[in-house]
Amino acid sequence: MTYLELAHVRKAYAEHTVVHDFSLTVQAGEFITFLGPSGCGKTTVLRMIAGLETAQTGRIVLQGQDITHTPTNQRHVGMVFQSYALFPNLTVAQNVGFGLRVAGVAARAQQQRVAEMLELVELSTLGTRYPWQLSGGQQQRVALARALANQPRVLLLDEPLSALDAKIRASLREELRSLQRRLGLTTVFVTHDQEEALSLSDRVVVMNAGRIEQVGDPATIYNQPASEFVAQFVGNLNTLSAKVLNARQGLVQVGEQVLRTSQALVGWAPGAVCGVSFRPEAARLVSADAHPVTPIDAPFADTHNTVQVVVQDRSFLGALVRLDVRLDPPTGASVLPQTWCVSLFNEPHLRLPAVGERVCVHLPSPSLWVSANPGANRATGSGAA
C-alpha cells in the first residue's frame, strides 16, 4: 500500500512555475532521494510535503490522510535542514527535546526520549554542551535526533550533509543510511550530489526545471538513463559525433570506425548525424594488434567495436586512472578531432600507455546509446558539487 503520495502537485510564484504536475508514490520504509541541479524544484517539493509551502494544485496524501492543507505542526513529519537550525542558547539535550516540550510531553517522558535519541546518534556524553561547542558533524546529528524525537511519520532531509567536509560527509552518510534502515523510517532526501543519491537511495527521482526526468533505483538511473539530461547529470559521460549507417542493426560510423550500438535505432534515417554516448569506465583498453580497426566496408563483428586513439594526457586518481584520448577524423576530413576519456581501475601491475602513444579502445555494444546531441565533448557530469 502506498504510504506517501503526491498527485499532480504544482507550485508557482507569480508568473514563474517552479514545480510542474509532480506525481510520485512512496512506499513505507523507502529511502527516496530528489536529485537535480540548483533551482530544479526539489527543495520546494520537500517543503510542500512538510507544509512549509502550499501546493496550488494537486494532493499530498500521507497514510491515507489528505494533508495538502494541513498545518505543519499537525503533519507529524520531521525535517532536518542544511543549516542545522539549532537554537544556540539551548544545550544539545534541550535542542533535541524542544519539539517534545512544545507538544506538551511530560517532563520524565521527555528526558527518557531525549536520552534514547542521544544514544541513537552516539552523542550521549554531550547532552550538556551547546551547539557552538560541537563540530559540524555533531551538530547535524543533534538536528537529526531532534527530528526523530517526535517519532515522525516521514523524515525529510534538505541537503543535510552539504556543509560538511568530505570525510565527515561520507561517514555521516553511512550512519544516516544505517539508522534509517534500523528504524524502517520512510525518508525523503534532497541533494544535488549524485554520489549521495546513488549510495543512499532505494529510488532516485531525477528532477530538471520543476519536472521529473526519471524515477528508478540507482543502478537503473546510472546504467539506463531515460533522457539525455539524466545521462549527462548523473555520472560522467562521453559523447562522440557519429553518423547512422544502418538503423535496424544499430550501426553507426565514428571517424573511420563502425560501431554497433546497444539496440536498433528506431526513427533514425541512414546518414543522420547523431551522438554516441558511453561512460568512461565502460571503455576498455586493448592491444592495438589484437583488435585492429575495422574498415567501414568490412563485415561487422562485435569484437571489432574498437576505436584507435592517441593518448593526450593521463591522471592518477587513486582507485582510478584517467586517460584523456583523441580520436582523429578521417584523412582529409575538415572536422576537428574528438576528445574523450577512459577510466581504468588502478592495479599494481597496470601498464599505462605514454602520452602521445596510439592505442585501441574497445567500446562494448551494451554500453553505447544514441542521442540527438551530436556534439563531441570530453566526459561531463554533475560531479559532487
Helices and strands, with pairings:
Elements: E1 2-13, E2 16-27, E3 31-35, H1 42-50, E4 57-62, E5 65-66, E6 77-80, H2 92-96, H3 98-102, H4 107-120, H5 136-149, E7 154-158, H6 166-183, E8 187-191, H7 194-200, E9 203-208, E10 211-216, H8 218-223, H9 228-233, E11 237-246, E12 251-254, E13 257-260, E14 273-278, E15 284-286, E16 306-316, E17 320-327, E18 338-345, E19 358-362, E20 369-371, E21 377-380
Helix content: 10-25%
Strands, total number:
21
Alpha carbon gap, first and last residue: 36 Å
Give the H and E element order: EEEHEEEHHHHEHEHEEHHEEEEEEEEEEE
Structural class: alpha+beta
- Indicate the overall shape: elongated
Largest β sheet strand count, sense and barrel closure:
6 strands, mixed
Low-confidence stretches: 289-302, 381-385
Tally of alpha and pi helices: 9
Q: What fraction of residues sit in β-strands?
A: 25-35%
Major sheet: order of its strands?
Answer: 6-7-8-3-9-10
| Rg result | 26 Å
Mean pLDDT: 87
Short description:
α4 crosses α5.
Please characterize this protein's 3D structure.
The structure is a single chain. It contains 9 helices and 21 strands. The chain has helices spanning 42-50, 92-96, 98-102, 107-120, 136-149, 166-183, 194-200, 218-223, 228-233; strands at residues 2-13, 16-27, 31-35, 57-62, 65-66, 77-80, 154-158, 187-191, 203-208, 211-216, 237-246, 251-254, 257-260, 273-278, 284-286, 306-316, 320-327, 338-345, 358-362, 369-371, 377-380. The radius of gyration is 26 Å and the shape is elongated. The chain has a 6-stranded mixed sheet with strand order 6-7-8-3-9-10, sandwiched between helices. Helix 4 (107-120) crosses helix 5. The chain starts with a strand and ends in a 5-residue tail after the last strand.
